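Next up, sample data.

:::
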Amino acid sequence: MIYITIIGLGAFFLPILYFLGVNIPFEKSPLLALVFGFVIIVVMPIAIYFNARKTFSTHGLIKERIIYEITDDKICQTGETFHSEMDWTKIYKIVEMKNWILIYHNRQIANTIPKESFGENLMEFRNLVRSKKIKAKLK
């Protein structure tokens, strides 16, 4: 995604420089490159947003209330229609954000837990994560 964004920014701004008088050679029309860049940096993110919104509103499992039980051995997730257990050794990394804790299974997939749901146990969770020697960005 980062490379596509860089290509899109280049395809968008190089024709603008060309139209401002900078001598940039184009094999095809600079207008075509401008449209291509616009599609990548504006249309694609909008399409991704609406697609994700549609998926969330139509997928029942995503909207279920999930209860997490975090122990020294594993993390258990229980929803209305499922139960899952994951050993600490299977966790890729844990990231603490302003309002969320993200528990990554791999580089792209994470469970999100609102920090407010930890209540007074947030410091205990941080200490548990540190004791497990998991890659973590905690406060």
Q: What stands out?
A: DSSP finds four helices and seven strands in the chain. The first helix runs from residue 2 to 19. The first strand starts at residue 67 and ends at 70. Residues 2-58 form one domain.
